[in-house]
Design goal:
mainly alpha, Cytochrome Bc1 Complex, Chain D, domain 2, 12 helices, 3 strands, about 45% helix, about 0% strand, elongated
Length: about 325
């Protein structure tokens, strides 16, 4: 007997369904294969990119600088040492290196890194004995260490303007400090800091930010002048930006509040000189708001009234700008 028509149709239907199923499996296998290839390529690109970022930034971190040493006269009088302590305080040196200059923890963040400003005394673990006076001056002004490599996060691009007298006084102060026995860990640069270094958003290597061949501008005479205020206010640029319009603080983390706009177009609108000085002295604004802990007001409070008046004059002389980003 021949195969019933209905059974032949059934077989044809089953074969067609099997064909569709096989085609679907083949297409799905092809899709999964290409997804695997694309994921593999993406992972490979990420690995190569990470390796390139590491190699490029490592080369910059380990670059050596052949800079001539500048002879600096270092005074030894008690008055000069006291002046050096004052300068080191209002320039926030002990804000990073610790009140005893024995080193401290500055940043601990897996993404940005772990940064430990070194012990700058002659105690155990101290770095001071590794430096000559001229090398200390080079570190302050050029951000280059005794090993001829760039220091990390040392704001030499802000200290480059310091006069010979001020640098000499700082060195005298450091040499007069009592030894502190404190071994500091080695600083480690995090992955995000390396990326931000490449994009120019993180001042990790101060030696790259200083024009080492540029003549140093003459330091202004101390006094209640906008010119002297500018000389003092350079230290504020690290957070408030070179134009003093404020914005995100480099390396402070995404949750940190932005630095305030210190131009006449920002936070200081309506303030008087006396209110500005009182804010620095107390850490509380005329409106009753406490300054953020990132702002080392307790250090700047050590400025004299004349110094704060000079800074006020300089800030008031700036063009009025909108808050920076």
């Amino acid at each position: 007997m021949g195969t019933p028509v209905w059974f032949g149709l059934y077989l044809r239907q089953r074969r067609y369904e099997q064909y569709l199923n096989d085609q679907g499996n083949s297409i799905m296998k092809t899709i999964l294969k290409w997804i695997g290839i694309l994921l593999g390529l993406l992972v490979g690109i990420l690995v190569l990119t990470a390796a390139a970022v590491f190699l490029i930034t490592n080369a910059r971190i380990n670059k050596t600088y052949d800079l001539a040493l500048e002879e600096i006269a270092v005074p030894t009088s008690a008055e000069a040492i006291a002046e050096g302590e004052h300068i080191a305080t209002i320039r926030a040196c002990n804000g990073c290196h610790g009140p005893d200059m024995g080193g401290s923890t500055f940043i601990k963040d897996p993404a940005i890194g772990y940064y430990y400003p070194p012990n700058l005394t002659t105690g155990q673990g101290g770095r001071l004995s590794l430096y000559s006076d001229d090398q200390i001056a080079r570190a302050i002004r050029h951000g280059v260490g005794y090993d001829n490599k760039s220091l990390l996060l040392m704001p030499a691009h802000e200290f480059n303007v310091l006069s010979d007298e001020d640098v000499g006084a700082i060195i005298a102060y450091l040499r007069a400090r009592p030894p502190v026995d404190r071994e500091m860990p080695e600083s480690k640069v995090g992955p995000l800091a390396r990326v931000l270094l490449l994009t120019g958003e993180f001042p990790l290597l101060p030696a790259e930010l200083v024009d080492h061949d540029a003549p140093r501008p003459p330091a202004p005479e101390p006094g209640i002048t906008a010119e002297y205020g500018r000389y003092l206010a350079v230290i504020c640029q690290g957070c408030h930006r070179p134009d003093f319009a404020g914005g995100a603080v480099p390396g402070a983390g995404p949750d940190a509040p932005p630095a305030l706009n210190l131009t006449p177009g920002g936070e200081l609108i309506g303030w008087t000189e006396a209110e500005f000085i009182a804010t620095i002295r107390t850490g509380v604004t005329p409106g009753g708001r406490e300054l953020d802990p990132l702002m080392p007001a307790e250090l700047f409070a050590k400025m004299t009234d004349d110094e704060l008046k000079a800074v006020w004059l300089y800030l008031q002389s700036l063009p009025a700008l909108e808050q920076g980003e």
